[in-house]
Amino acid sequence: MLSRKGIIPEEYVLTRLAEDPTEPRYRARERRARFVSKNGNCNVAHKNIREQGRFLQDVFTTLVDLKWPYTLLIFTMSFLCSWLLFAMVWWLIAFAHGDLAPGEGAAVPCVTSIHSFSSAFLFSIEVQVTIGFGGRMVTEECPLAILILIVQNIVGLMINAIMLGCIFMKTAQAHRRAETLIFSKHAVIALRHGRLCFMLRVGDLRKSMIISATIHMQVVRKTTSPEGEVVPLHQVDIPMENGVGGNSIFLVAPLIIYHVIDANSPLYDLAPCDLHHHQDLEIIVILEGVVETTGITTQARTSYLADEILWGQRFVPIVAEEDGRYTVDYSKFGNTIKVPTPLCTARQLEEDPSLLDVLTLARGPLRKRSMAVAKAKPKFSISPDSLS
After folding, report:
1. Mind telling me which Pfam families this protein's record contains (predicted)?
2. DSSP tag of 181
3. How far is CA 380 from CA 371, 373, 377, 383, in A?
4. Are 215 and 287 in contact (CB under 8 A)?
5. d(Cα 111, Cα 154) in Å, to the nearest integer?
6. 220 and 282 in contact (C-beta within 8 Å)?
7. What mean pLDDT do residues 140-154 have?
8. Mind giving me the DSSP string for 259-277?
9. CA–CA gap between residue 170 and residue 72 (Å, rounded)
10. What are the distances in angstroms from CA 308 to CA 114, 189, 190, 283?
11. What counts of helices (H) and strands (E) characterise the chain?
């Protein structure tokens, strides 16, 4: 039926029908769960939190962290509840003063034109929202009504202040600015200055800069201590280097951030074959800085699993000078090319430097061959006489 509709190819259906059900099926190894997803979200679920009251001690942060539907629902209910509460208070004041019974109450009512709970509810909305249609107003007959008027105005101002503050903080959250901070989809390991380096590319799509931008990197893996203690998420800080030096970067154009794999690096014994079998390796990259336009600190995160690290490749150049200015071609942001790289660990390369000489000898004939091909190409020239 599905093959007739074109959803599943006919040959696939025939293959599935012809297979032997007695043969054992081999399932592919499940991919390791990420600690940090590619878009920067932390893949951590908090369960069995007994002290839920701690969240109410910081109500403002709790409201900001809530999703938009819940935040709007809470603000709507707070307005409705306050209007209904004070409407009940205004109705009781009018009832106690005898303003609800026409012709039997006092000559001067506490609040004019209140004859039912509906009119008291409308007056409550007018007071708190400061609409003032003019049909209802508080008189000097009842001091208690004047006090309630002051209290309701203060309560309305507090609700408005909290609502506006939460909406501003939710719209100006740091992760909104991080949407335009991008990382390369893959990281690469290749030679740079004669040493194996772990490299990635980072860029900013906006013209407004990230001030005091710093970048950090951590390796997260499952380890076991000599005493037998299992640490499921062991985090190790490793230094990142860039053209400026240190962890601070000047992120005007995309930069290639690299880490030199030396004896102090947790990647010192990482080999190309480990990238396909080392399922417990995850490298987290954190970019942090201050947004130039708002002054809010923002943070962008990403991670690379073992199968997202390309051995023996490097990023292609994407910055070029055109018409007196530098241009960036973001269509090639994550593009890489293969380069000669020793298929060994950094430890083996440091212990046996002759592996670099083998690469140098291998590159030599390639360069000579390319130069010979370039010389063999015919060169055409047009003389001025031939044009006449």
Report:
1. IRK, IRK_C
2. E
3. 18, 16, 10, 10
4. yes
5. 19
6. yes
7. 93
8. EE--TTSTTTT--TTHHHH
9. 12
10. 71, 11, 14, 10
11. 10, 14
CA angle (201 as vertex; 198, 202 as ends), nearest 5: 130
Average pLDDT over residues 226-234: 85
CA distance 150 to 157: 11
Q: pLDDT value at position 379?
A: 40
How many Å apart are CA 213 and CA 8, to the nearest integer?
50
Instruction: Specify the pTM.
Output: 0.69
Q: Torsions phi, psi of 100, nearest 5? A: -85, -25
Of the listed ranges 106-115, 212-221, 307-316, 333-342, the least confidently predicted one is 106-115
Q: Name the E strands within the chain.
A: 181-183, 187-192, 195-204, 210-224, 230-238, 248-249, 255-260, 282-291, 297-305, 309-311, 313-315, 319-322, 325-328, 336-338
Cα 71 to its chain centre, rounded Å, is 21
Encode pLDDT of 234-252 as tens digits. 888 887 765 555 567 888 8
- 287's CB contacts (< 8 A; 6+ apart) are 181, 183, 202, 210, 213, 214, 215, 299, 300, 301
